[in-house]
Amino acid sequence: MTLPSPTARVCAAAPLALMLAATLVGCGSSGDGAAAPTTEQAAIPVSAVRVTLLDPGAGPRTVLDRRSAVGTTGSAVLSTSAAVSQTLADRPPRDFSSPAMRMPLSAHVTSSEPGMTEVALTLGEVTSPDSTLNTELKAERGAHAGLTIAPDGAITTLRISPPPNADNMARAAVEQAFYQAIYSTVALPSEPVGVGATWKTEQHFTSAVELDQTMNVTLKARQGGVVTLDVQVNQSPTSPVWVMPGDTRKLNIDKYEMTGGGTVTLDLDAPLPTSADITVGGEQVFRVPDSDATISQTLGNHTQWSAR
Questions:
Q1: I need a labelling partner for 128 at 20 to 30 A (CA). Which of 35, 77, 83, 249 fits?
Q2: Does this model's pTM top 0.85?
Q3: Could you tell me which residue, 11 or 59, shows the higher pLDDT?
Q4: Residue span of the signal peptide, if any (predicted)?
């Protein structure tokens, strides 16, 4: 799954790019100012998720089909944080973490056709413990977004309508929170399953590097249309070399470890998760080719859904 948004891709890659440019190759700034804000809705496709059933579990077995009826409403709070600590060689570490955010959402199913469900989202009062970001996020209240959801629960399209009075900081933060939530979404198998069923999902996407993400999922419990899932996450680079975005310079990937997991509870008839708590973290080491110069970073991403 390739992050189609330049904002999200740059946010993820910025710490490495900044340190490489400023410290290793001495690149200067182009001097360009921030891009002019746009009020047009962005429809951002998300590439497919492959689901492989490993064990159907105990009977009785049914298909876990997520298809909410038109007019169904729901609400939830999405909370995210992303910690990044980065070290160049033996220099002191630098903190490139993104501030935590709390984003209340109201959902309304506008269309439910075979193969897709369209969900309209309205943002409530988005907040952050970071005072600067918190001030800028006030403009996001009442903003609109939308999701296209496949029957297996995978999100295939994200739509964002930025408010005209929101600045780039707030827009980027909201967009990144949505991406973090989307890439923590658990797709469901198309085959009938029962309690104890296990399956894996596979996705390709771009963060600072091209990654393959695998989720190993276990159906821990089911009560009517509500299912509880145990999720284990592993990310691995598709190449041993990282190419800087928009550039030809490269870093060797000496180490890349990103693992984690958590628990997700879904009401199959609801447009948003009932609850979720997923943490993914790890360490990476990047090295300049034909050099001993290295960049190390420690990351930790936390995504949580809770009742509003």
A1: 35
A2: yes
A3: 59
A4: 1-27
